[in-house]
Amino acid sequence: MKKLIPVYVRLPLIFFIVFGAMEYFIDSGDRPAFIKYPMVSVFLFVFLFLLIAIEITVSAIDSITYSLLTDEQKAKLEIDSNLSLKERAWYKNLMQKLTKTEPMETEGTLLLNHDYDGIKELDNNLPPWWIYLFYITIIFAVVYMARYELFGGDDQEMELKKEMAQAKIDVDEYLKTAPDLMDEKTVTLLTDAADIAAGKEIFTTNCAACHRADGGGQIGPNLTDDHWILGGGIKEIFHTVTNGGRDGKGMIAWKGTLKPKEIQKVSSYILSLKGSNPKDPKEPEGDIWIGKDAPKTDAAVVATQTDTTQVKK
Questions:
Q1: pLDDT for the residue 294
Q2: For residue 240, how far is the Cα from the chain centroid?
Q3: Which tens digits make up the pLDDT trace of 28-42?
Q4: What is the rounded CA–CA span in Å between residue 275 and residue 225?
Q5: Angle at Cα 282 formed by Cα 280 and Cα 284, nearest 5°?
Q6: pTM (whole model) above 0.90
Q7: Which residues of the chain are under the pLDDT cut of 50?
């Protein structure tokens, strides 16, 4: 093997095989593993050092062993080392086991009584590799037929459908807990004090200029009453903050500035302002909001009907 693959090829080949395996199996994101994890670089350096040390050691052992040989042994070793691959004993033994061919000297015993224009036929046995492969195909055919025909195994189309269905379930489950992929369909109302406080800070920084710090409304509408222009549920407010208000007259879309999780927090804080009764609130705008799950009382229905003079936006 050492004669077949020189050391200047063998060393880089082994090193880059190990290097490629580590890059493949170590999850390092968009950066190479040996850059993201310094210990990988240390390991590769030590591994390369050991490879070189092993090659030097083996070469030294070979040199010492060769110097201890007699002249006759050295001559025999020189002859063996100059043999081609097909002339080597191990190669001949391997091919004999795979093919079971008869030597040229004994082919006369295999002749059949068939002679076609001087072409004679030999009764050679089939090569063992061919026979074993044939047996494997028979076993595979039996297992395949039993699996898919007798026991109703899933074919490729059914496997694809199941995998697609499972992938959809996995994506939906991931979207429920992935803050940066949240939308108005998956957003939920936050009630934790820390989340509301964070929402208040976002509101004060970005929204107070138009809605006042207390939410009573200035340029923008009053956020503390029951009237809403584009809906007053957590999903509707999240959608409005994300995509903006009415074209030409509503607020800007904040999706380019705030992350979905931040929009969720500020939307939850806005809902917490309901009924806070700030000083000098702006006149109501829009319609009285009644959520889909809220009970529709007579008073709410009357209030909705009497609010038809408000501009629907």
A1: 45
A2: 33
A3: 877 888 888 889 999
A4: 6
A5: 130
A6: no
A7: 1-2, 293-313
